[in-house]
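thread from #wetlab-drylab

HS: before we spend reagent money on co-crystallization trials with FE2/S2 (inorganic) cluster, can we at least see a predicted complex? here's what I'd submit
DV: go for it
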Amino acid sequence: MSRISLMNFADLPPGQSAEVVAEGKIFAVFNVDGTVFVLDGICPHAGGPLGKGSLRGDVVTCPWHGWQFQVSSGQHCLNSRICQTKYETIIEDGRIMIEA
Ligand code: FES
């Protein structure tokens, strides 16, 4: 497991989401009231960009067909069998980092 630096915490205000490419992978980064959550950025439905979805509270809606996920857990909002990979997140020296 290694630590991957994704982006500046200051560049992601509360209520915002971002798509970040790092180490050859796509990550979806969310700020929910000051707490940062990071999920695998590729929607399991058909590969849509979860980091470009709209964030309401702690639920992101995929921009392609509307699947919704709780970003704090990765859990699909309607189908309990679908859970998106969630990464351990750390803020260090103003950067959003994950263990991956
Ligand atoms: S690709 Fe995300 S809902 Fe279809």
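DV: The longest strand covers residues 25-32.
HS: ok that's useful, forwarding to the group
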